[in-house]
Amino acid sequence: MSRSIGVGIVGTGFMGQAHAMAFQSAPLIFGTSVNVRLVAIADINLAAAQATAKRFGFAKALGSWQELIADPEIELVAITTPNALHADIAIAAFAAGKHVYCEKPLSADLKSAEAMVAAAGKAGTKSLVGYNYLRSPAIAYAKKLIADGAIGHVTYFHGICDEDYMADASTPFSWRCRQDTAGFGALGDLASHLVSVARDLVGPITRVVADQKTFIEKRPVPSAGDGTEKRDGSAVATTGEMRKVENEDTAHALVQFKGGAMGTLITSRAHWGRKAHLAFEIFGTEGSILLDHERMNELQIYSKKSDDPATNGYRRIPIGPEHPFYGKFSPAKGHGIGFNDLKIIEVALLLETLGGGAAAYPSIPQAMEIERVLHGIVESASSGKWVELG
Amino acid sequence: MSRSIGVGIVGTGFMGQAHAMAFQSAPLIFGTSVNVRLVAIADINLAAAQATAKRFGFAKALGSWQELIADPEIELVAITTPNALHADIAIAAFAAGKHVYCEKPLSADLKSAEAMVAAAGKAGTKSLVGYNYLRSPAIAYAKKLIADGAIGHVTYFHGICDEDYMADASTPFSWRCRQDTAGFGALGDLASHLVSVARDLVGPITRVVADQKTFIEKRPVPSAGDGTEKRDGSAVATTGEMRKVENEDTAHALVQFKGGAMGTLITSRAHWGRKAHLAFEIFGTEGSILLDHERMNELQIYSKKSDDPATNGYRRIPIGPEHPFYGKFSPAKGHGIGFNDLKIIEVALLLETLGGGAAAYPSIPQAMEIERVLHGIVESASSGKWVELG
Amino acid sequence: MSRSIGVGIVGTGFMGQAHAMAFQSAPLIFGTSVNVRLVAIADINLAAAQATAKRFGFAKALGSWQELIADPEIELVAITTPNALHADIAIAAFAAGKHVYCEKPLSADLKSAEAMVAAAGKAGTKSLVGYNYLRSPAIAYAKKLIADGAIGHVTYFHGICDEDYMADASTPFSWRCRQDTAGFGALGDLASHLVSVARDLVGPITRVVADQKTFIEKRPVPSAGDGTEKRDGSAVATTGEMRKVENEDTAHALVQFKGGAMGTLITSRAHWGRKAHLAFEIFGTEGSILLDHERMNELQIYSKKSDDPATNGYRRIPIGPEHPFYGKFSPAKGHGIGFNDLKIIEVALLLETLGGGAAAYPSIPQAMEIERVLHGIVESASSGKWVELG
Amino acid sequence: MSRSIGVGIVGTGFMGQAHAMAFQSAPLIFGTSVNVRLVAIADINLAAAQATAKRFGFAKALGSWQELIADPEIELVAITTPNALHADIAIAAFAAGKHVYCEKPLSADLKSAEAMVAAAGKAGTKSLVGYNYLRSPAIAYAKKLIADGAIGHVTYFHGICDEDYMADASTPFSWRCRQDTAGFGALGDLASHLVSVARDLVGPITRVVADQKTFIEKRPVPSAGDGTEKRDGSAVATTGEMRKVENEDTAHALVQFKGGAMGTLITSRAHWGRKAHLAFEIFGTEGSILLDHERMNELQIYSKKSDDPATNGYRRIPIGPEHPFYGKFSPAKGHGIGFNDLKIIEVALLLETLGGGAAAYPSIPQAMEIERVLHGIVESASSGKWVELG
Questions:
Q1: Considering CB atoms only, which of D275, D331, D338 is closest to A333?
Q2: Which helix (H) or strand (E) holds A70?
Q3: Taking Cα atoms as reference points, which of D205, D207, D204, D202 lies closest to residue D288?
Q4: Per-residue pLDDT tens digits of chain A, which is 390 residues long
Q5: How do A3-10 and A76-79 pair as beta strands?
Q6: Cα A177 to Cα A185: distance, rounded to the nearest angstrom
Q7: CB atoms within 10 A of CB A121
Q8: Which residues on chain D are in Cβ contact (under 8 Å) with C264?
Q9: Which of D205, D262, D274, D307 to mutate to test the interface with C (most CBs of C within 10 A)?
Q10: Residue D236's closest CA among D226, D246, D245?
C-alpha cells in the first residue's frame, strides 16, 4: 500500500455512510495496492456532514459539493446524492480532473447522462458506477460459469427486481416520485440493477418492447418535504394533501440480446412481500442457473451433463471461498456475507482500478448502455413499438 | 347415483389412460350424482385399444373414432388424441348429439377451433376442456382468495410454464414439432395451461405483445415415425436424417388484463431443469400469492394486513381439507395429492355438469378465449405489434 | 391377471376407504399378476359398512369382523381398525387360513403383537403391514442409493416424524389417548413409520436410550364418545369434563444401528406447524440424503464425488419415472404423486406377494422388529437406561 | 465517544483478523459510547503479528501473549488462540486486571475452565465469550419472540450444528484432533454454539444422556505440523503417516430443560453437505420457530393464533430493521448481513459492557454453564447414564 488516494464523499444518507464504511474497510480486508485518505464529506445539511465526518474520521465536513470538488487534496469524488444531482457533480468533478465513483443510475434524464459521458471522455480520469450486485460472489460466479460454457449458449434471461417499499398507497410522496429529481421510478431504482446484471452476464440488449404503469396515482404529501424517504416502516407525518406520482410503479419488457437470447425484465416498487428481490433464471443449451438475491449466499445450477438422470436436479451451491471475493471475508463456506460487504468489494475493485489494475465494470461511459435500455423501455411503453438499441 | 352415463374415450396414450382411471375413480371418491359406464375405447392401433379396454374394463375396443361416435350407448366422448384430430372428432361428436370432454388446446389452428365452437353451439350439449391445473386445490384456492379480496385489486400476474423435455438438441422430431399435427409448440402444450390459469384467476386478457423463437431448428428423425414422443429419458432410434422444427421452443408475452393488471407469460419446452413447472406470482394492492406447481401441495401468501411488521412474511400454506377438493382424498393436511388426482377432480366436475350441476369451466366455447390469446401471441411475434384481443 | 383373490376389509374409516380405493386401482395401474374381488367390508356400524360397500362395489356389507373372517370367499383380510383390535382380528384370520394385510402398528401392547407373530408363523399364510411410506418413490430410491453405496457407509440417521393434530390443548380426548385402545401415543401413530424407514434404509437398531412426555395431561371429553377423532380442524362437541391422557405426546431416542451408525428418532403429535412431517437426514462417508415427506416428490442428495468443489451442493431431485413405482402413474417428471398413490403401490406389492412374487416388506413377523424398537423407547424412558434390542 | 479503551488481540488467524476488523468497525457502525485504540496484536509467529498490525493499524506487534498482557496501555485482552491456550492467557490477563474477550469454548478441559472462572471472579473485571451466533438478528429475535410468549411455553428444542470440514477421511490431522490442544472435537467447535443458543433461548439444561463416536479413527499427518487447519478445500502436504484422532467426530444428546422442555442436540464435523449449519426447531404450546443459519437472514414462525386455518402456515420472515441490530447495517429488509457483521455486533455489545451498560451474555463465569453441558455429554457418552447438571 505504497500509495494513498484522497477521497471525498458527497451525501450522508444510507449510501453515503455505506461508502464511508467501505472506504475504511476495503483496504484492510482486501489489502488493496492503493490506500485511502478520508479527506472530506459534504452534505447540504452541514450538521449531518459534521456528524458523519466525526464518526468515520473524515478530515473535513463541508456544506456543499462545490467546496468538495474544489479541494485539491481530493482525487476521487464519490457521489451518493439523489439521481438528479449526479450529472452536475460528476461533470464538475471530471472538469476538475478527479476520478468519479457514482451511484446508479447515471441521471434523471438521458441528456444529462450523455453529458456525464462526454465529460468523462474529456477528463480521461477513471470512473465506476455503483452497480453493487455485480460484486456479489454468487452473481460474479454465475458470470464465470456462463463465460466458461457451463450452461452452453444462453437462450433465455428471465430477470425480476421488485420490492414493496411503495406498495402501500399510504406511503408518502418522496423525491423518488418526481421526474425532476428521480427521473425513472422503479426502473431507475431497481431495474437499473437488473439491467446491469443482464448486460454483464448475457451481453448487450439490442431491442426492447415494454409497458409500464403507475398503479398508485397520488400519494400523501409529507409534512417534512419530499427530500427523504423511509423504508423501515416507520410513520411519516403528512399534510393531508395528495400529490401526483410522476413515474412508474411497475414496468416490464421483452428483450432480445445481441447473442440471440430472449429475455424478460420485470420491475416494481409495489409488489407486496418482495424486499431486495433481485432474481434471475438463465437458461442455456446445456443447463441453467437460478438466483434470488434475498438469499445472496447461494446459487442453483442445473447441468445437462449429469452422470445419471435419476440423480439430476438443481444443485444449491453455498457460496464459499471457491467463489469470487468471498475468501477475503471468511475461509469457510456457509458463513455468509452481507449487503455492505458488496460495497466493500466494489470499493476494493475501484481502488485497484485507480492503482492501475484492470478497470472495474462499468465506468460512466459503459453504464450509458444500461441507461439506454431503461430509456428504451420508457420509449416503447409510450410508443407501443419495439425500440432498437443498436 | 341414480343415473349412469355411457362414456367413450378416443386415444390410449398417457392421457387416454389417465381419463380411463379418472372415470373409474371419480364416482367412488366424489360420490358424484351421475355414475359412469365405460362403453368403449378407440385407438387407430386396435391392439392398443383392446389391451386398454381389458385393463380398465371397457365393454368394447374400437379401431376408429368414427365407430365410437356411432355407438348409441355413448353419451360422452372424451378426446385424448394429438391436437390436430380434436376438431374432426369433436365436431362429429357434437353432430351426433354427444357431450364432449376434450384435451387442451382446442386444435392445431384457429379456424378449426372456431368450427368446434360453432358445432358446440349448434349441438347444445355440454363440453369441458381438460385444463386440469384449474382443478388443483392450491390454484382453486388462490382463485377463491383473489375473489374474496385477500390480496386487494390484482395489479400483476407473472406466469411461467416451462419444461425441459425438448431442451436436448438430440431429442427426436415428433408430432409436437409439426404445424399440421400440433400447431403450436410450447404455446399449445404448456402456455395453454398458463393462460387458462391467468384467465380463471385474473380475468380476460385484452392485449398482448409477444416474441417467440425456435432455438433448436432441426431435430433427428425417429426411425419409428413421429407419432409418439418420449418424455422419460429413454433413447429413441433415429434414422440419421434431420427435420426442420415447425413451431416455437420458447415464447413470451407482455399482456394487459381487462381489470387493469399487467402481466407476463413465459413458456418454453427447452428450459433445462424445469419439469412440470407451472408457476405464478400474483400481486395485488393488499398482498400477493406465489405458486410453483412442482410443489403442488403448497401455496404462499403475503398479506399487508399483518398484526406486526416484524413477523410479516410469506406464509407457506400446506394444502389440506380446508381447501377445494382435497378433503375428498384425505382428512389430513400434508398427505398431498398428485397429478392424476387432478384428472379425477376434473372428471367429477364434468359428471356434475352432466348431472345438471354448475357447469365446469371452460366449455369448448369458453376455451376459445384461451386459444385467442395463444394465436394473438403468434400474431404479435410475427408483426412486432401489440395485438388487441377484443 | 389369470387369478383373482377375494378381499375383505375390516373398518370403514379413512384407512378403510383408502384400502378400498387401492384394491380397485392397483390392478389397473400396475397390471398386477393377481386380480381382486371385493367380497366384503365389515364395520361395527353396519350402516357405514353398507354405504361403503355400495360406494366401492363390495358384494357384502357385514356388521362384525367375525362374519368377515368366516366368509370362505375371502382369502385376504385387510385390517384398518384402531390398534387394539388388530391382534384379535389378525389371529382369527390366520387361524382361518387367510392372508393378512394389517395397518400399523401391530398392536397396542407387546404381548398381543407377539401373539400375532406366533399366529402368522403357525398359519404359514402371507402378511404385510401397512408401512406405506416405504412405498414412496423418494424413500424407495433413497434406499436404493444407500444400497448402491452412493453415500458410502452410513454414519448417521436423523429422523423426525411430527405433526400438530394434538398440539391444541382443546383438542378432545380420543381413542388415541388410551392405553387399552391405542397403546402408544405419537410413537405408535407416527414414530412407527419413522422406525420402519430407519430399519429399511439403514438396518437393524440394536440399542436405544430415550425419553418421553405427555405435555397436555388432560383433554376435554367429547360428547360423542372417543371412538373417532377429527383431524380437519372442525369442532367436536365436548361434555365439559376432562380426562387424563394415558400416552405420550412426544418421545425421542438416541439409537445405535447394527451397522455402526448413530441415530436420533424424534416424534410428536403436538408440534405446531408440522403436518405429515416425516423427515430424515442420512449421512454417510461419501455423501448425504435429505428428505421431507411434506414434499414427497423430491429428494436431496449431496455427493462428495463432485467434479468441482465450486459447484458442489445439495441436488434437489424431482421424482420421476427413473425412480421406483412413479412410472406407473406418469411418464413425466414433476407431475407428482400423492399419498393415496402410496397405498396403491402398497396393494400392488401385496398382490404380487400373493401371486408368488418377492415378499413385500414387512410381514407381520418382520414388523415385530419395529415394534420392539418402540417398546424399547418406552422402557428406556421409564428406566433411564440404554435398552438392548438384541 | 468520550472514552477510549486500549485493546490487545492474541492470535492472527481468521478469528484474530475478524476481531481486528470488528474493533475497527463496531464504533463506526454502532456509534458506541466507548471508543477503541488498537494497541497491540501478538502471535507466536512474530512476522504474522507484524503483518497484521500493519494491515489493521495496531501500534505494536508482539511475539508472545505475555508481552501483550504486560502492556499497561492494554485494558482489554482478546483471545483467539487454539482452545488449550485460553486458560493461561485469560488467567494472566485477569491477574493483570484486564478485561477479557475470549473465543469459545472456554478451554480444552474442565479444570482449566474452572480456573478461568475463579480468576474472573477474583479480578472483578469484565468478560465476554465469543458466542457470536447469539448476536445474529434472527436468533436474537427468536429469543425475544419466546420471551414475549409468541409460541407459548416451550416444549421442545431440536438443535443441530454440523459441518463437513472433516468429513473427508483424507483431511489431515490438526490441532483440532488432539485432547491437549482442542479437548472436545465437534462438541467444542460446533456444539458449544448450539448449547449457547439453547441456553439463551430456552434456559438452563438440567440433565443429559448422550453418545459420541469418532468415525474417522486415523488421519494423515500434515508435513507442516498440526498447528493449522484448512477449511477451504485446498490440499495440504502430508508425510504418509497416520495419527489417531483423539476426540469425537459426532455427538448427540437428549436433554431436559429446567423449564420442562425436552431437547436434542446433534453435532458433527463429518456430515457431508453441511457448512455453517446451525439449525433449530423450537416448539411451544402456541406455535413454533424454525431457523437454519445457512440462511441467516430469515426466520420461520408458525402461530396457532391465525385468523383462518386455511391460510395458516409457516411465515418466512426476512430479517430487517424491525429486528435486533440489523438497522445499524441497513435501513432496508432483504439486504442481508453476513457472518463478520455478527462479530461487529458482538464487539459493540462488549464495548457497551465496558462502558457501563448492560453486560453482554455470556461472561466467562456464565459460559461455564455451557461448558458443563458439553462435559456432561462426554461423561454420559462414557457412562451410558443420564448426567445431572443441576
A1: D275
A2: helix A65-70
A3: D202
A4: 468 999 999 999 999 999 999 999 999 999 999 999 999 999 999 999 999 999 999 999 999 999 999 999 999 999 999 999 999 999 999 999 999 999 999 998 999 999 999 999 999 999 999 999 999 999 999 999 999 999 999 999 999 999 999 999 999 999 999 999 999 999 999 999 999 999 999 999 999 999 999 999 999 999 887 665 665 556 778 999 999 999 999 999 999 999 999 999 999 999 999 999 999 999 999 999 999 999 999 999 999 987 688 899 999 999 999 999 999 999 999 899 999 999 999 999 999 999 999 999 999 999 999 999 999 999 999 999 999 997
A5: parallel
A6: 6
A7: 11
A8: 252, 264, 266
A9: D262
A10: D226
Kindly report, residue by residue over D280-334, the tens digit of the pLDDT: 999 999 999 999 999 999 999 999 987 688 899 999 999 999 999 999 999 999 8
β-partners of residue D244 are D218
Confirm or reject contact between C290 and chain A (CB < 8 A). Answer: no
Residues of B in contact with D315 (CB under 8 A): 311-316
- Residues of chain A contacting residue D294, judged by C-beta atoms under 8 Å apart: 297, 318, 334, 336
List subunits contacting chain D, requiring 3 or more Cβ pairs under 8 Å: A, B, C
From A379's Cα to the closest Cα of chain C, the distance in A is 40
CB distance D90 to D79 below 8 Å: yes
Q: How many CB atoms lie within 10 A of CB A223?
A: 11
User: Which of B28, B171, B272 has the highest number of chain C CBs within 10 A, making it the mutation to test binding with C?
Assistant: B28
D273–chain A Cβ distance below 8 A for any pair: no
Query: C8: which 3 cell numbers?
Result: 375383505
Determine the Cα–Cα distance for residues B333 and B319; give it in Å rounded to an integer. 6
- Residue D173: strand pairing partners: none
Three-state DSSP at C227 gives coil
Helix axis angle for A364-383 and A192-202, nearest 10°, is 110
Distances (CA, A) of C136 to B57, C143, C146, C326, D200: 28, 11, 15, 9, 39
Per-residue pLDDT of chain D (390 residues; tens, 9 = 90+): 468 999 999 999 999 999 999 999 999 999 999 999 999 999 999 999 999 999 999 999 999 999 999 999 999 999 999 999 999 999 999 999 999 999 999 998 999 999 999 999 999 999 999 999 999 999 999 999 999 999 999 999 999 999 999 999 999 999 999 999 999 999 999 999 999 999 999 999 999 999 999 999 999 999 987 665 665 556 788 999 999 999 999 999 999 999 999 999 999 999 999 999 999 999 999 999 999 999 999 999 999 987 688 899 999 999 999 999 999 999 999 899 999 999 999 999 999 999 999 999 999 999 999 999 999 999 999 999 999 997
Alpha-carbon distance of D326 to B63, in angstroms, equals 70
CB of C135 within 8 A of CB of C360?
Answer: no
Q: ipTM of the predicted structure?
A: 0.95
- A45 vs A24: CA distance, rounded Å: 23
In this complex, the residue of B24, B31, B56 whose CB is nearest that of residue C55 is B31
Strands C154-162 and C277-284: antiparallel
Of the candidates C155, C252, C272, the beta carbon closest to that of D250 is on C155
Distance, CA of D3 to CA of D32 (rounded, Å): 10
Taking the alpha carbons at both ends of chain B, their separation in whole angstroms is: 42
Rounding to the nearest 10 degrees, give the CA dihedral for residues B67, B72, B76, B77: 10
What 8-state DSSP symbol labels residue D176?
A: G
What is the DSSP annotation of A339-373?
HHHHHHHHHHHHHHHHTTSPPPS--HHHHHHHHHH
Q: Chains A, D: CB contacts under 8 A, how many?
A: 134
